[in-house]
Amino acid sequence: MSLTNTEVTAELEPCGKDEHPDCGIRDVLDRVGDKWSVLVVVELASGTRRFRELQRAIDGISQRMLTLTLRRLERDGLVERTVYPTVPPQVTYELTDSGRSLTHLVKALADWSIEQRPAIAAARHRYDASNPGHPIR
Fold first, then answer.
1. CB 125 within 8 A of CB 99
2. Smallest Cα–Cα separation from 71: which of 101, 49, 93, 43?
3. pTM for this structure?
């Protein structure tokens, strides 16, 4: 099936207008567009997790980066942190309603990534072949 450009392009309002110079998305994308935030959202999509469960589930994330990511997501209202009065204190994290609404977008992006992986790999191969030695990799 062959699609035309208009069939695959969403209608987006151009950026740069006085009333929305960056389309209002830059600040939000800074948070939800970084890899650690996306991976935390993916992990929390399946339910409430404790800090160590998240750290074990997200390969390569340091304790400091997980702490920062969770605090930022909490500040943005995407994650709720609950502290239980136990010794030692038990802390759990879960997505808020806003955070759960983000999971549909993350799933769509993941599906798109899997679907487009062969085309992207082929494009990279063509680029690298026609630009030998170019620092972009």
1. no
2. 93
3. 0.76
43 is written with which tokens? 């992990």
- Which parts of 25-71 are beta strand (E)? 49-50
Tell me the C-alpha distance between 137 and 130, whole Å. 13
Cα 96 to chain center, whole Å? Answer: 16
Own/partner contacts of 3-10, CB < 8 Å, gap of 24 or more, are none
Binned average pLDDT, 10 residues per bin, the chain of 137 residues:
59 67 70 87 96 96 97 96 94 97 91 94 94 86
Q: Longest C-alpha distance within the chain, in Å?
A: 62
Backbone angles phi, psi at 3, to 5 degrees: -105, 145
Q: DSSP string covering 58-123, please?
A: STT--HHHHHHHHHHHHHTTSEEEEEE--SSPEEEEEE-HHHHHHHHHHHHHHHHHHHHHHHHHHH
* Cα–Cα distance for residue pair 43/48, rounded to 1 Å: 9
Q: How far is CA 58 from CA 87, 91, 116, in A?
A: 26, 18, 24
